Amino acid sequence: MHQSSINQLLERRVHLLQQLANSLQRAQDALLIPNYSQIPLHTKAQHDLCQELRRLADEFQSAQVASRGKPADANGASTIPVTACQKALASDLQRLQAQVADLNRKYAAILR
Q: Fewer CB atoms inside 10 Å of the end CB: C or N, the chain?
């Protein structure tokens, strides 16, 4: 897998997670205002974003399988270097995943 392809997949995932976090926040706001007519719209957006995230994960998995023929070190890890950009994207991903998990917990608590 080329570095640019990895970067594109990571950037797309970051973008989708940011959209998901925004949608979860807007849904919480709609419940608290209240603006209940907006909830189905946010739920649909969240569903679509989650489907796209799953599709992207499958694409990334397929790309990783295709690149398994690449050189590996003694532990079986790929010797393809990780770029500074990929490290930054991975950091963004971790932050956004934690944010989405937190927003999801809060949203579930509000719904109870």
A: C
User: Could you give the CA distance from residue 21 to residue 24 in angstroms, rounded to a whole number?
Assistant: 5
Give pLDDT tens digits for 36-63: 999 999 999 999 999 999 999 998 888 7
Residue 65 vs residue 83, higher pLDDT: 83
What's the mean pLDDT in 26-36?
93
Which H, E and C letters describe the chain, residue by residue? CCHHHHHHHHHHHHHHHHHHHHHHHHHHHHHHCCCHHHHHHHHHHHHHHHHHHHHHHHHHHHHHHHHHHCCECCCCCECCCCCHHHHHHHHHHHHHHHHHHHHHHHHHHHHC
